[in-house]
Each structure stands twice: as structure tokens, then as C-alpha cells.
Write a structure and sequence with these properties.
This protein has ten helices and four strands, in the order E-H-H-E-H-H-H-H-H-H-H-E-E-H. By secondary structure, it is α+β, with helices and mostly antiparallel strands. It has a four-stranded mixed β-sheet. The radius of gyration is 16 Å and the shape is globular. The two termini are 18 Å apart. The model has no long low-confidence stretch (mean pLDDT 97).
Length: 199
């Protein structure tokens, strides 16, 4: 069975714009996904990136235009300046990790719900009530928001180290079991073709 390591940040607008396409691709090819939420700011620092707020104004302006364009192209709701961004991404990441460990729900739906809460619904995904609602909506026990904290923190740190070792430097970033790497939601078609053996 093919396998995809999915490195992402729960506050990444580009991961939000990926929607459910990764899961659709994985299902089409019988591939498994391991969700690896991480601290994107730490990843930038480790791999030569720059926080959006510290980038040159030309880069910031282009990012603002292009995010809106991409959302329109994908027919997705999107708020360029959400009320709670940036926010502490650790609690929501711990919830994804705990849910993946627990099983019984839809981890992809959980990740999408958290990102939608940030980029569409003006909710703070660092807050316990928001995380619990997203867990419940994806079929998980909301109490995972509490019980998975210690293991979540350990895995969260490990995900960063694994991302650096795997050559990831942004979010979303997809790595297959044959070490093919794809950065950005606009490379999902490439991932699809790679898994089909045509790229």
C-alpha cells in the first residue's frame, strides 16, 4: 500500500485551500495518510523560510492577491484577514495527533474543520471549545482535547524533526514512501499522477 506523510500547519491558508483533495487522491490509489501537524514558524526558521509578516512588502502583497485568487479558483470560502490569525497552533495540532492515535473518526475531516474554523468561521482554534466542537464534528470524543496533551506535545516536536529530515519546508507538504516530495496544494495533481505512475 502506498503511503503519504502529510506535513502541515493547522493555521496554514494553503493547507486549508487543499480541501479534501488529498483524501480523495489517497482513496483513489489505496494510499494511507499519516497526518503530521507541526509548528510552521519553527519549520521556516529551520529551513530558511521567513514568517509572512517579516517578508518583503512585495511578497506580502502578492501573497494577499494570490490567496484570494486561489480560493476563487477552488470555489472555497476564504477570509484573507481572519480575526484569530496567527494563533497558537499547538492545541489544535495536539488534537489532530490524539485523534489519529485514537481512531474511530475522520482525521482529514478534523484537520479541515480546524482550518475552516480559522479561515472562514472567525473562530480561534487555540480555544478548547472550538477544538472540542471540531473533534465532535469529525466523529471523535471531544475529551481527546484533554487526554492527548502529553503524547501530542511529544509527537508535535517529533513531527518538526521528521519534516526537516524529510526535506519539507512549508505547508502543506506531501512525502510519499518512495521519497517523492510535493509542496503546496497546487501540486496535488502532481501527487495524484505520481501515485498513478504517470509522472
Amino acid at each position: 500500500m502506498a503511503h503519504i506523510d502529510y506535513y502541515f500547519s493547522t493555521i496554514s491558508p494553503y493547507a486549508y485551500l487543499a480541501g479534501g483533495r488529498l483524501e480523495e487522491i489517497a482513496a483513489r490509489h489505496g494510499a494511507a495518510i499519516t497526518y503530521k501537524p507541526l509548528d510552521i514558524m519553527a519549520l521556516f526558521a529551520r529551513t530558511g523560510g521567513t514568517s509572512p509578516r517579516d517578508r518583503h512588502p512585495s511578497r506580502q502583497e502578492y501573497r494577499a492577491q494570490d490567496l484570494v485568487r486561489q480560493a476563487r479558483m477552488l470555489d472555497l470560502e476564504f477570509n484573507l484577514a481572519p480575526a484569530h490569525w496567527p494563533t497558537n497552533m499547538a492545541p489544535s495540532s495536539y488534537a489532530v495527533i490524539a485523534a489519529q492515535n485514537a481512531g474511530g473518526g475522520d482525521v482529514g475531516a478534523l484537520a479541515r474543520a480546524l482550518m475552516r474554523a480559522c479561515w472562514v468561521e472567525e473562530r480561534d482554534i487555540a480555544q478548547d471549545d472550538v477544538i472540542r466542537a471540531c473533534l465532535a464534528g469529525a466523529g471523535f470524543d471531544p475529551s481527546l482535547a484533554d487526554s492527548g496533551l502529553l503524547a501530542g506535545a511529544e509527537t508535535y516536536g517529533r513531527n518538526l524533526e521528521e519534516a526537516v529530515a524529510a526535506g519539507a519546508f512549508g505547508s502543506p507538504f506531501y512525502v510519499t514512501d518512495d521519497d517523492a516530495r510535493f509542496w503546496g496544494q497546487d501540486r496535488l495533481d502532481y501527487l495524484d499522477r505520481h501515485l498513478s505512475g504517470t509522472l
